[in-house]
């Protein structure tokens, strides 16, 4: 298992679908996961620390887990089958550990609220991960494309 953190959210320009980007803290591997708009909103609201007057779904789930004497120990993205990621929420409590099947987006939204670590199976990263170098190279190529298409007029008063 490789520990990951949420790098952020972006939009797939071809499908307008949200993409959740996980990365390892050393920046060597990234894992993009296409998610739904509602799940992206739940994750973004927690990343931005948006306060709501009433508990949202993932806040409610965390409150129920804690109210029953359990805590979220960690979440793991443990499998990838037919382009679908699978995750587990690992709960710790008075009866021991409990593992619950989950969609990765829901597990991550809960992990963020519970401040629980996020792990990805090495096999999943090997299948779908992107090396940090690949991401940097793609970013460099994207900027190169943008700059090559610009004209001096695009710079406004800052003429070259």
Automatic annotation (TrEMBL):
Compositionally biased intervals (Basic and acidic residues): 135-147
One Pfam family in the UniProt entry: BFN_dom
Region feature Disordered, mapped onto this chain: 130-160
BFN domain location: 1-132
Domain of life: Bacteria
SUPFAM superfamilies, sorted: Hypothetical protein TM0160
Molecular-function GO term, any one: nuclease activity
PANTHER family associated with the record: VON HIPPEL-LINDAU DISEASE TUMOR SUPPRESSOR (PTHR15160:SF1), VON HIPPEL-LINDAU PROTEIN (PTHR15160)
Protein name: BFN domain-containing protein
Organism: Dethiosulfatarculus sandiegensis
């Amino acid at each position: 298992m490789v520990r990951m953190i949420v790098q952020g959210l972006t939009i797939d320009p071809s499908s307008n679908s949200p993409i959740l980007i996980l990365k390892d803290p050393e920046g060597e591997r990234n894992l993009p996961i296409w998610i739904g708009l509602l799940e992206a909103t739940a994750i973004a609201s927690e990343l931005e620390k948006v306060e709501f007057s009433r508990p949202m779904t993932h806040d409610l789930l965390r409150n129920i887990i804690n109210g029953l004497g359990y805590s979220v120990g960690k979440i793991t993205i443990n499998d990838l089958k037919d382009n679908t990621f699978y995750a587990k929420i690992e709960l710790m409590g008075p009866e021991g550990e409990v593992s619950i099947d989950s969609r990765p987006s829901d597990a991550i939204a809960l992990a963020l609220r519970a401040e629980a670590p996020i792990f990805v199976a090495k096999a999943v990263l090997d299948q779908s991960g992107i090396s940090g170098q690949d991401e940097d190279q793609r970013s460099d190529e994207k900027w190169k494309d943008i700059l090559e298409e610009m004209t001096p007029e695009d710079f406004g008063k800052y003429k070259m």
